[in-house]
Amino acid sequence: MEPGTAQLLPPERPDVLSIATLLDQVQAAITRAFPRGHLVWVRGEIQSITDRTGHCYIDLVDPEAPRGRDAKVLKINCWQRTWAPMKAALAKQGIVLEVGTVVTLRGRVEFYAPRAQVNFIAVDVDVDALLGRLAASRAALVKTLEAEGLLRRNSTLLVPALSLRIGLVASPGTEGFNDFLGQLQGSGLAFTVMIVPAQVQGRAAPAALARGIAALAAADCDLVVLVRGGGSKADLVAFDSEAVARAIAVCPVPVWTGIGHTGDQSVADIVAGRAFVTPTECGQELVQRAGDWWETVAATVSLVSRRATEVLEAAVERDRAARARLGQATRHQLHRHAERLDTCSRRIASQARRQLDIAALAVDERAARLGPCAHRALDHHGERLESWRRLLAAYDVGRQLERGYTLTLGEDGRIVRSAATLATGSVLVTRFADGRAVSDVRQIEVATGGDGDGAVRPAGGEEHG
Asked: Which of 7, 57, 151, 332 is paired with 36 by a 20 to 30 Å CA distance?
């Protein structure tokens, strides 16, 4: 557009709506479908939930509808004045709204023109429906555990009659924790408690409790105890979780629960070997079992002690009588054997003198014969030794060399026994009686017949170095 020229606008079309008009018409249509003050029920699955500043904001989708970018999402607003009592009522029943929960809400439909957004203002929630789903979920978990053979598995484990090594999963410092430990500490018995701290309520509680049970399962415990003080259903919801139930079911050590209930048993109570209404009762039962065991042992020890005293007294009396009889018999036997010993000693002394005289004569006779025999043997072996010396001297190499013989050796120091083993240029060492000579082989003559003639390999004569 050139400067100074006017901008020409297209003429207005009669069918074009302004944004305000369009939104007013949408508002009117929504009002006709959902008049002001008209409340409706809507059911959906929570896709997201935000609970900040006292207000609650929920994105709700159809549970059966496919997920994706085209999924239909209803924005739920629950204002603080409604959400606070609603949240409290849900918590009292042990219900926590979270992603994935299918919920039925009652409210009104509103159109928020500034954002062109349709909102659902929630004013009520169907608690009965939620409770029914929770009960159904709990019943399904119990049924699943029973089908897998886990529901009563822990109750089949044998609890030692004297259980003093106790593994405790609890929140330290809480009322239930103190009540349980107070019973053990006040008993005067030597309980040893291995404590695994764990959350007992909240979203992280199921995993923490399951980890604690698994940790104590690997420890040297007689019994694992899971305790928590009283609370609302919301406070105790962790004990209905599958993680805790399975941890108890597969634990190789017996598990007892002491959970302060306000209503029915939790799934943890059902799966555990024994369940008590409160931590105090659980501790009292442990103390009672240990006390009963001690009383039984004490009674048995007392009975054994009395019987042992009676038996010992009878044994002492029998021993006294036996020693008297033994002493008398011993003296009699000693007298008899003393007489026999005296007779035998006189007989042995007489025989010993005769045997010694005979042996002395025999030794003298053998000594007279042994001298000449020894001299003859020495002379004989002396002659044989001189004969061997002469024979060895005849084979002495030094003696042979003195007589004019020589000894020819190869480079490796071995004796040369045949001309056939030599080669032209071989080095020979010849030993004499007074020294040696080194020579090179120039010619080799090997005898091939009986007349001494042989083949000649020219190599020159023998040269001594």
From this structure: 57
Distance CA 144, CA 141 (A): 5
**Where is the domain boundary, 250, 271, 290?**
290
Which amino acid type is present at position 184?
Answer: L
Q: Which residue in 63, 259, 107 sits closest to 169, CA to CA?
A: 259
Q: How far is CA 340 from CA 346, 348, 388, in A?
A: 10, 12, 67
Q: What is the DSSP letter of 274?
A: E
Q: Do residues 58 and 169 share a domain? A: no
Tally the C-alpha atoms within 13 A of residue 20's C-alpha that lie toward its C-beta.
0
Separation of alpha carbons 382 and 17, rounded Å: 152
pLDDT tens for each residue of 357-398 = 888 888 888 888 887 888 888 888 888 898 888 888 777 777
Read off the pLDDT band of 94 (50, 70, 90): low
- Coil, strand, or helix at residue 38? coil
Structural domain contains residue 337: no
Q: Which residues does 130 contact at the CB level (< 8 Å), separation at least 6?
A: 90, 93, 95, 101, 103, 104
| Percentage of the chain modeled with pLDDT above 70 | 88
The partner residues of 258 in beta bridges, in order of sequence, read 227, 276
Instruction: Report which residue type is found at 423.
Output: A
Tokens 């000594």 correspond to what residue? 367
Tell me whether residue 241 is in a domain.
yes
b/e per residue 313-336 (b: at least 16 CB within 10 A): eeeeeeeeeeeeeeeeeeeeeeee
Chain-centroid distance of CA 41 in Å reads: 56
Give the predicted TM-score (pTM) of the model: 0.47
Beta bridge partners of 445: 456
Angle formed by the axes of helices 242-249 and 127-147, to 10°? 20
Check residue 201 and give its pLDDT.
Answer: 81
Q: Within a 10 A sphere around the Cβ of 364, how many other Cβ atoms? A: 9
Q: Which two tokens stand for residue 347?
A: 């007989």
Full domain range(s) for residue 144: 135-153+162-290
Determine the Cα–Cα distance for residues 358 and 307; give it in Å rounded to an integer.
70
Beta bridge partners of 168: 195, 225
Contact indicator for 412, 398 with CB cutoff of 8 Å? no
62: its two tokens: 């159809």
Strands 55-61 and 40-52 turn out to be antiparallel
| Residue 397: partners with Cβ closer than 8 Å, 6 or more residues away | 407
Q: Is residue 384 situated within a structural domain?
A: no
How far, in Å, CA of 295 to CA of 300, rounded? Answer: 8
| Mean pLDDT value of segment 80-90 | 84
Please give the Cα distance from 52 to 80 (Å, whole number): 10
